[in-house]
Structure formats: structure tokens, C-alpha cells
# Entry
Amino acid sequence: MLQNEQEFTRILKERLEGTLAREEIDDIVSDYSEHFRMGKESGRTDEELCKSLGSPEDIARELKALHLVKKAENSKSCRNIFHAVIATLGLGLFNLVFVLVPFLILLVMLFVIFIVGVLFAVFGPIGFVFSLLQLAGQPAFAIWLNPAAGAFFAIGITTMGLLLIIGDYYLARFFYRIGIRYLKWNISVISGTEEI
Amino acid sequence: MNIQFKKGVLEICVLSVLAHKDCYGYELVNEISKRIDISEGTIYPLLHRLKDEGYVTTYLQESAGGAPRKYYRLTESGRKEEHEQKEEWMRFCASVNALLEGKNNAAE
# Structure
């Protein structure tokens, strides 16, 4: 258990360094030193104040998660959303189920759609070329029962592949936006502490 | 009371206290912790977030014989948010209470 303000401040600073900017850390620390100052003025001891504030590790975890989610919102990238998810996971065991599992499911789904799209977009044009060669009377390329129908089918597959890739992109953006909102809500509701 | 539940209502509590008057951090924490048993430290990250979202602003004001204090004030959008969340909370409580009372009656 923490005994005094110096220790509280030291741990808080230590945990925030590397993630938050210098000025932001100073701003946060100044809030807590004001809290300690006012508390002592009203006759409470260092120890009492530490106890009622709760652990600085938990406070730092929440501030970091907030910061990283905001960062992922302002500059969209895989790396940023990944960091935000990891930081939110740290807020409680609960989030293994409510953050990690949905995140992985979405990731796999978007990946599968992308792969299927790429396969369609690659094999469609190949099938189209084959059907043309088959129509031109090249027996080595005779993969279609009906080369004319095959040509149209290949065009259809190619188009579908491209649409899947484009759709996947918009789907990813959509889930990114929803994901950020969900993480924000999650941080505001999930407590970093398992006990009071 | 369940701690997860408490943290969720902290935001409306903070907004509501600030809707009545501007507060400095320690004052706000006291207002809330005298009614709800919470880790007082979690109020500051919440204030930080509310500031980010534009619901509150801060200003420094000299106190009588001491260092200046950081006051928190609701913005226009903060007031709107407070109003909406309060309405929502009241409706929710009324429904839950009605349900709980109904259940008790049925058990008798």
C-alpha cells in the first residue's frame, strides 16, 4: 500500500512516460498534487489520501487507454487501433471477452473477404484469357465447357472480386469507426480495478 | 454495489454537479465521494476525457491565501449532454423501479 504523495506521483509519472506527451503528464500530475494539497489543508494525511485515490497504476492504465484510443481516432492506422485495443485489454480480464474476441472475429472476417476478393480478381482475368484462347482454337487452353459462356462468367468473377476488395475496404473503415466508439464507451464503463 | 455499475454513472454525476456550479477538482471529488463510495482517483481521468470531448473547460482562479486552483466549468455542449443523460437516467430508473415493485407485488 502506498504511503505518500511522492510515491504516488512517481509511479503515475513512470507509467505514463513513453505514451503521453510531457505537457500532458505534467497537467495530470498537477491535478493530483492539487488534490493532495487541498486534502492536507483539510486535515487528511498522505496515507488516507493515497488510499482514497486508489492505485496510480490503475489510473495510469486508464489514462493511457484513453490517450491511445484518441490517437487511433485522429490518425487511422492498423498500428494505432492495435495499440488502442491492447491498452483497453489491460483494463480488466472482462475485456478479453468483450474486446479481444470481437476484435479477432472482425479481423478474420475482413481478412477472409479480402483473400476471396483477391482470388476472384486474379483467377477471373486468367479464366477470361483462357476462354479467348479456347475460342481462337487453342486446345491447350480448353478449360471451359462453353468458352463463350466462360468468358462472361470470368468477367463476372473478376468484377465480383474487385467489388469484394472495395467493399472490404469500406467495411474495415466502418468497423474502425464503430470500434473507436465502442472502446471509448468501454473505457468509461469498465473499471480498471477489480476491487474498490 | 457493483463497481462496474458505479463507474458507468460517474459521468452523469460529475456533469450534474458541474451543472449547478463550477468546481475545482478536490471539491468535485468530495461532492461525489460523500454520496458514492468510489476510488477518488478515477474522477480525474474522467474529467480529462470530458475536457477532450469538449463538455468541460478549465480555468485557474486564485484562492484565498493559497496557490491558484483549477476550476472546471460545463460548456454549452456539456449542458446539453447533462440534460440528455439526466433525462435518460430518470426514465431508466423509473422503468426499473416500476419493474422491481411489480415483481415484489407478485411475490406477495
